[in-house]
Design goal:
single chain, 149 residues, mainly alpha, 7 helices, elongated
Length: 149
C-alpha cells in the first residue's frame, strides 16, 4: 500500500490501533511514522523539530503575476510566464505536503491537545516540538520510567 494514498486517520489507525497520540508509549511509533510521511511528501526539512527556525529553509511563496504584467515587454511577459510554469508545481507540491502533514497531526491527537496546537499556527515544527516535549521520554529520569524498589 502506498503511504501517500491513505488519509491521516487511516494511517494512524493502522499504526496505533485507532488510538490517538495520548501516551508516552505511542510517541516513538507516531514520530517515526510522521517523519516518514513528511519525507515521502518532501517536507521533512520544515517539520523536523530538532532544526531551529533560523536554520530551516524558507517556504516557497505562492507564485503570482506581477502587478505590472501587462505593462511589460513581450519578452518579459514570456519570461514571467515561464517562471510561473516553473514555480507553480513546486509550490503546489510543497503546500500539499505541508497540509497533509498538518492534517495527519490534527487527525492523530486528541481534541484538547489539538486545540493547544493552534497556538503554533503554521509552524509545523513547533507543533511537533510541543508534542515531543509533552509525550516523549526525552528529558525524563530513568527513575521516572522504571519504579525502583
Amino acid at each position: 500500500m502506498n503511504i501517500n494514498n491513505i488519509n491521516g486517520t487511516t494511517a494512524v489507525a493502522a499504526l496505533c490501533g485507532v488510538k490517538p497520540l495520548h501516551k508516552t508509549a505511542h510517541w516513538e511509533l507516531w514520530f517515526c511514522y510522521l517523519r516518514q510521511y513528511a519525507r515521502d511528501n518532501h517536507v521533512w526539512e520544515f517539520v523536523d523539530p530538532d532544526v531551529p527556525a533560523s536554520e530551516r529553509p524558507e517556504r516557497l511563496k505562492m507564485p503570482d503575476f506581477p502587478e505590472n504584467f501587462y505593462e511589460l515587454s513581450r519578452n518579459d511577459q514570456k519570461h514571467e510566464m515561464e517562471m510561473l510554469r516553473f514555480l507553480q508545481p513546486r509550490w503546489e507540491l510543497q503546500d500539499r505536503g505541508l497540509r497533509a502533514v498538518k492534517a495527519l497531526i490534527h487527525a492523530s491527537v486528541e481534541p484538547h491537545v489539538d486545540l493547544l496546537l493552534y497556538y503554533y499556527e503554521d509552524d509545523i515544527a513547533a507543533r511537533v516540538r510541543y508534542l515531543r516535549d509533552r509525550f516523549s521520554r526525552r528529558g525524563q529520569d530513568i527513575e521516572d520510567l522504571v519504579p525502583m524498589e
